[in-house]
Amino acid sequence: MKSHSDIAIKVENLSKCYHIYENPRDRLKQIIAPRLQRLTWQSPKQYFREFWALKDVSFEIKKGETVGIIGRNGSGKSTLLQMICGTLTPTHGKIQTNGRIAALLELGSGFNPDFTGRDNVYMNASVLGLSSKEIDERFNDIIAFADIGDFIGQPVKTYSSGMMVRLAFAVIAHVDADILVVDEALAVGDAFFTQKCMRFLRNFMKTGTVLFVSHDTSAVVNLCNNAVLLNHGQISELGTPKEVIKHYLATLYDANQEVNGVKADESNVTANQVELSSEYRDMRETLINDSTLRNDIEVFEFKPDQAGFGTGDAKITSVRLLDQDGTPLSWVIGGEDIILEIRCLAYKDILRPIIGFHFKDRLGQVIFCDNTFLAYQHSPLFAHAGNEIVARFEFRLPILPSGEYSISPAIAEGTQEEHVQYDWLHDALIIRVHASRVCLGLVGLPMKKITLIAQ
Fold this sequence. Notes:
Elements (H helix, E strand, L loop, with lengths): L6 E14 L3 H17 L8 E14 L3 E5 L6 H9 L6 E6 L3 E4 L12 H11 L4 H15 L14 H12 L6 E4 L8 H14 L4 E5 L3 H7 L2 E6 L2 E6 L1 H16 L11 E4 L13 H5 L6 E4 L8 E2 L4 E9 L8 E3 L3 E10 L6 E9 L4 E6 L1 H4 L11 E9 L6 E12 L4 E7 L3 E5 L17 E4 L1
Helix pairs in contact: 3-4, 3-5, 4-5
């Protein structure tokens, strides 16, 4: 039995009904008709049809949980969030919340377009419960987080969608909320800001409660403890993200696809044969690279001023992708052999330098990572103060789904288990995948040989 103090959000038999009118005249008739019907003793007549956006929805979210809300468009996700946040009144049922709620819902919601960014910060933060003094104390941090420059003094109606999200998220990140409600709005942010938001969310999730709505199933699996699947305004399933998403994808495919074919049995065998060898090319490479399926990847410039941490006894000065001849790359194709080069400057003598990296997607998920420790644990490098330390990682770049990715480099001294972090840069190098070949998972691998046998 959960105590009330353990519950952050409790939803009981929640329903929301909208009246749908065929034309504006019917709305007026609906206002006037009941009065006339009472005078003439006629049977009541309604000029609208009912649409139940939500019907008898019930669930509980414990404090500290991160819960994903998923479902197709029109399933009732936004309606549910608005009622939890108090901006929409239920038709039936009730909602209990325990703690301060901060929400990032529809783009620009809560902003007055004619007010400046500065005015909207004060207005939004005060609505969320901060006093004028508290807003004054946090204003510089909010502006630094939003990073929109002089536009803070301009009317919000002049902002791009990305700038609006930056400002809105910066406010909710600084109001000491207990419950954070985030809709799909983050999808319009650029790669650097999205990574910053994900770092904030991951830190907030250690103690706070998050209600997260997204069509991105990988984000729900990566971020959430539990998930709720809405379908036509009702809960279709509630449970672990993995199981709920399996059900969601199954219903999604059933609704959008007709599959005609023969059920596979033991007489039909598909074999993917890959031999362990570092020297091979994907058997489909020529065909794919001559088509629109080629995995084109744009490489942006290294950002040395990105946020990070460390003692400062060494500094990362360069991160580049190189071809096999050592030439810097501004474009690369997924599945090709590349070199990731990280250059650092030592400001003191370093006995056992370790240089490594994280390769992350836009949600901050680590797709893969590595460092130099194992390769040099028996013959450690010694670097004098003033030396440049260069690490090169040669590997075959995976085939990547479309989107933006980042590389976070780091330099430390010591061992894997015990080390001193000298410099770690968040998202120092961004790459953007413009087209994706046949890759349905987090990454794809070049296939040396694929065979299909029917016996």
